[in-house]
Amino acid sequence: MLVLAAAAAVVLVAFGIGAIVVLGQGGKPEAEAGSIGERPTAVDTTLPYEPVPEGPVDGDTTTEETTPTEATVAPVEETEEAALAELEELAAQGLTQVSFRGQYAAQIASKYPGIHDKLQTTAAGSHTFTAADIRDEHRQLASAHSSPEHPVILLRSTDYGKRQQVNGRHLWVTFAIGDFPDRQSVLDWCDNQFAELTADERANQCAVRKLNPGR
Length: 215
Known about the structure:
Blueprint: H1 2-24, H2 80-95, E1 103-111, H3 131-145, E2 152-156, E3 165-166, E4 169-170, E5 172-176, H4 183-193, H5 199-205, E6 207-211
């Protein structure tokens, strides 16, 4: 009996020593294959918010576009030669609108450059008429008094009748032509067209003429 008890004690001691050795090899069990270990902590790379400054950025060379302005062109003063050339054209047109057979007509202007008329004035208020003034007066008279029955035309004083000249210069004459059967019909037309003028002014402005062939 003593031998069996001793043998049992030896076995128990040996078992205890083995258990101590096994437990001493590690306090934790190994992780299973394929298991996920601890994940690394993500690093926040977001930069702190910086407000965008208002206004131009340093180094910005952008400039505002400017709209070019057109250069002002000074008006060219009309020359007497240009006005005379236009009067020549108007008189040439007038010749195509009339035949000279002694018919009555109303003469409503008769001037040469440099003439002084104490009863009439230019647009500028002068009593002395230039070629441009004569041209402008003819245009105004044609605009105000011409009609299909009595067209207003321009002629040279040397185109008809006695071919009148003053100091070697012809006159530019504005006529209202058409159906004037007699002298009184011309006077009636003058009274109607220039009713705002006095009798003397009307006689100076509108006169009875006969368009005879030149001689």
